[in-house]
Design goal:
heterodimer; A: 778 residues; alpha+beta; Phosphoribosyl-aminoimidazole Synthetase, Chain A, domain 2; 28 helices; B: alpha+beta; Mth169, Chain: A; three-stranded antiparallel sheet
Chain lengths: 778, 89
């Protein structure tokens, strides 16, 4: 057959609305498309007839877990209940749009969001990760913003598993490849290895964009007669999954496609698309805009119509195609990358098309906003879709999945890592050896092998990036106004106690932002869990959401958006085949002047090291328990959110008043890891004494070094500021203790824990940096 | 000395950004009349002695497992180079 004519093959019957009404008995493969019997029945009720193939394609993909949030919705409402008016003060756009928008002052707004691309990154690591980055960038563009930075949170199986050697380099070069080509700095994130992510890697990408208040754009199609324009890349067979069943159902093997096809990203196209969109926005040519991501045109058309006046007519045969053999069902489902959809007034459409032509971006007017409340899709004049758009986009099924605390949870929590259960190092020699093993372990070792593949400084506005606690970018080049971002998760803590674990992840991201000197303002989250059909997983999810919502309320930072990724599991061992429950939390903070930022390491000798917060014997879910004993049990560290708030406040004031030269959050690996990283950051050693700390907190040196108690930060205070610093902590009632002094940058410099052991920094660096290159190559 | 030539192409339904860039550049440089470009890659494998059916079978195996990414690429031909003995693919 010819592939030049856009018409469908002659002889094949088009499944029109008319035909669907006339052939009620015709069976459609709804089950193969992932719909349940009652869901299919509901579609028939909504339409008053059987759906056409194209309608079924739309409903099946929009009612999937990924698009409809049908299992998570009832729990996600918790966030709304815990968002107070006070928290909404800085919120310009909240949950529900492509991304939340936060007012950061001086007329500026930022928009940010984290999203998962887990499964595609397992199938084809490079393209899966690359298109994950591309997708989240388009969400930010759709709000009217210029993207300014990206971040990523990555989780893989055990470091020495053969499949990890396939997935890690692919994902890392995919994240780097897309971000570097498009010219956005990658300012931070995290990497974590655990056997539960074997076969289920988590690839969560975040993007942040900046705009002036008046430039905020929303996704809705209003104004009868306004035109619907699709622009960007052509539509091909990318990401078409189960819908191929429909294609083969309605006509014989035609196209070249052996679906499903992997989505391939083109960052250079996306770069042009960014500039094109900004040009369109500044010329005032856009009434509403939406990016095309998962579920492609099905999602964009139904969401725009549903959020707008309700009526829309689309001529599907006007979609520019890369593969002319695609059926209407496939065009509706295609997840081809680098596409956007805009609502444009008829008066502006010529100017709009002139701008897209200037940027060499293909654009096609597909249809218009109509009165009434139906979304009509036509194919060469025949109607193939006639649905109420709200039923597709916003009124999908909602499930109250059963959930129950797993029977195994009690035993898990009872298995605490006590000194009797897990032998602990005691002598100086043992502690020294433990520290070296820990700092070389997969989750604590240097991330440089990964982050050196990312451009962290392109655009020239990055003022902090990995390995600092938070990434900081300048937004206003005149005033120095900027934002700090941190992305954190801890699946082990969340496994031990989902509510507290989720709060600990939130608290860590919040603390990291404050550690850099920024005032925390808002939250985005990516909730990665196993199958919602398992009551144990659903319990983890419900608990984590509840904990997170309460934590956000206590800290006064609203959740602005994010995403939920379920079914991250392999096999049928129930809860045991699921990934560790992993809420990844992004916190955004603001700095009035980024030159006031605080780095995570010290570089001047003779500064005083203070430990803020108190240390308890808390090793449940710790890196020490895992690295040294492959143990996961007990309870996670306790969390005091009032203390976290106070700590953040003090850190922000310290940064503003220049009281600290360095600040580093204590998290995985405890004080020992913070000392290692703080020393290695600029190569300046430290002399540390633990006696007073042990005496004040009633602990031994091992607990002091390796416990992962929350709410602690290590700071370096210049001698001339020590009095002011002490006065401030005392006045605010914040526990602070002098535990050491910094040494100079030299060849002989050491990390000296007095009375116990000393390690030359050269030896520490060797241990800290060798692990990733050894596993993944030079 | 024999030589095996292997051609690998992106699968037809997969986006090929490189090909797209070339098709965009062609008219700008005055080459009109080309409406599509897809860019693949060619490998030349040298062997001691003749290119036998066994050698070709081995080369095909290497092409399918190492030289191509089966998720997004097809091995479109594995053949002996011009003049070399042995059966074609």
């Amino acid at each position: 057959m010819s592939t030049d004519t856009p018409a469908r093959p002659s002889g094949a019957a088009l499944d029109t609305v008319e035909r669907a009404a006339a052939t009620p008995e015709h069976e459609l493969p709804w089950e193969a498309l992932g719909l349940k019997a009652d869901e299919y029945e509901r579609i028939r009720e909504i339409l008053g007839r059987r759906p056409t193939g194209a309608e079924l394609a739309m409903y099946s993909v929009m009612w999937s877990e990924h698009c409809s949030y049908k299992s998570s919705k009832v729990h996600l409402r918790t966030f709304g209940r815990h968002t107070t008016d006070e928290m909404k003060k800085h919120l310009m756009v909240g949950i529900g749009e492509n991304a939340g928008v936060v007012d950061i002052g001086q007329g500026w707004a930022v928009t940010f969001k984290v999203e998962s691309h887990n499964h595609p990154s397992f199938i084809e690591p490079y393209q899966g990760a690359a298109t994950g980055v591309g997708g989240i960038i388009r969400d930010i563009m759709a709000m009217g913003a210029r993207p300014v930075a990206v971040m990523d949170s990555l989780r893989f199986g055990t470091i020495d598993h053969p499949d990890t050697a396939r997935v890690v380099p692919g994902v890392v070069s995919g994240v780097g490849g897309y971000g570097n080509c498009i010219g956005l700095p990658n300012i931070g994130g995290e990497v974590f290895f655990d056997p539960s992510y074997q076969g289920n890697p988590l690839v969560n990408a975040l993007c942040v964009g900046a705009m002036k208040h008046e430039d905020v754009h929303l996704a809705n199609a209003r104004g009868v007669g306004n035109l619907i324009v699709l622009f960007g890349a052509r539509t091909g067979g990318d990401g078409i999954g189960g819908v191929s069943v429909l294609a083969s159902e309605t006509f014989e093997d035609t196209g070249p496609s052996k679906r499903p096809a992997v989505q391939v990203g083109d960052p250079f196209q996306e770069k042009v698309l960014i500039e094109c969109c900004l040009d369109l926005f500044s010329a005032g040519l856009v009434e509403g805009i939406q990016d095309l991501g998962g579920a492609g045109l099905s999602c964009a058309t139904s969401e725009l119509a549903s959020a707008g006046d309700g009526g829309m007519l689309i001529h599907l045969d006007r979609v520019p195609l890369r593969d002319s053999s695609l059926s209407p069902e496939e065009i509706l489902m295609s997840e081809s990358q680098e596409r956007m959809m805009a609502v444009v007034t008829p008066a502006n459409v010529d100017a709009f098309l002139a701008v897209t032509a200037k940027w060499d971006v293909e654009a096609a007017v597909l249809g218009e906003v109509t009165d009434g409340d139906r979304l009509l899709v036509q194919w060469h004049g025949e109607t193939v879709v006639d649905v109420p758009p709200r039923t597709v986009a916003h009124e999908g099924p909602v499930y109250e999945r059963p959930y129950a605390r797993p029977a195994s949870q009690d035993a898990l929590q009872a298995d605490a890592p006590t000194a009797e259960r897990l032998p602990r190092p005691a002598t100086g020699e043992e502690l020294r050896a433990t520290l070296l093993r820990m700092t070389a372990s997969p989750n604590l070792c240097s991330r440089a092998w990964i982050t050196d593949q990312y451009d962290r400084y392109v655009l020239g506005n990055t003022t902090l990036a990995t390995p600092d606690d938070a990434g900081v970018v300048r937004v206003d080049e005149e005033t120095g106004l900027g934002v700090a971002l941190s992305l954190d998760g801890n699946g082990r803590f969340t496994k031990l106690d989902p509510a507290t674990g989720a709060q600990l992840s939130l608290a860590e991201a919040y603390r990291n932002v404050a550690t850099a000197g920024a005032r925390p303002l808002a939250v985005t989250d990516c909730l990665n869990f196993g199958s919602p059909e398992d009551p144990g997983v659903m319990w983890q999810f419900a608990e984590a959401v509840q904990g997170l919502a309460e934590g956000c309320e206590a800290l006064g930072v609203p959740v602005t958006g994010g995403n939920v990724s379920l079914y991250n599991q392999t096999g049928d061992r129930g809860l045991d085949s699921a990934v560790l429950p992993t809420p990844v939390i992004g916190v955004l903070g603001v700095l009035d002047d980024v030159s006031r930022r605080t780095p995570s390491g010290w570089r001047e000798p003779g500064q005083v090291l203070y430990l803020l917060g108190t240390t308890r014997d808390e090793l449940g879910g710790s890196e020490w328990a895992w690295v040294e004993h492959r143990h996961l049990g007990g309870l996670p560290p306790a969390l005091d959110l009032e203390h976290e708030k106070l700590l953040a406040d003090v850190l922000v004031n310290c940064s503003r008043d220049g009281l600290v030269d360095a600040a580093h959050d204590l998290s995985e690996g405890g004080l020992a890891q913070a000392l290692v990283e703080g020393s290695l950051r600029f190569g300046a050693g430290a002399r540390v004494w633990l006696d007073e700390l042990c005496e004040r907190d009633g602990i031994d040196p091992f607990v002091a070094l390796f416990s992962e108690s929350a709410g602690r930060v290590l700071v370096a205070v210049p001698r001339e500021e020590e009095v002011r610093f002490n006065d401030m902590c005392t006045a605010r009632g914040l526990a602070h203790l002098r535990i050491g002094v910094t040494e100079e940058v030299s060849q002989e410099t050491r990390l000296d824990v007095q009375g116990l052991f000393a390690v030359p920094l050269a030896e520490l660096r060797e241990a800290h940096t060798a692990t990733l290159p050894a596993h993944f190559g030079g | 000395m024999g030589r095996v030539v292997i051609d690998v192409m992106p699968k037809p339904e997969i986006l090929d950004p490189q090909g797209k860039a070339v098709v965009g550049a062609l008219p700008r440089l005055g080459f009109t009349g080309f409406t599509g470009v897809r860019q693949g890659k060619r490998f030349e494998l040298e062997v001691e002695g003749e290119v036998t059916d066994e050698v070709l079978a081995e080369a095909r195996k290497a092409a399918e497992t190492l030289l191509s990414n089966p998720v997004i690429e097809d091995v479109v031909s594995v053949r002996a180079a011009d003049g070399a003995a042995g059966a074609g693919a």
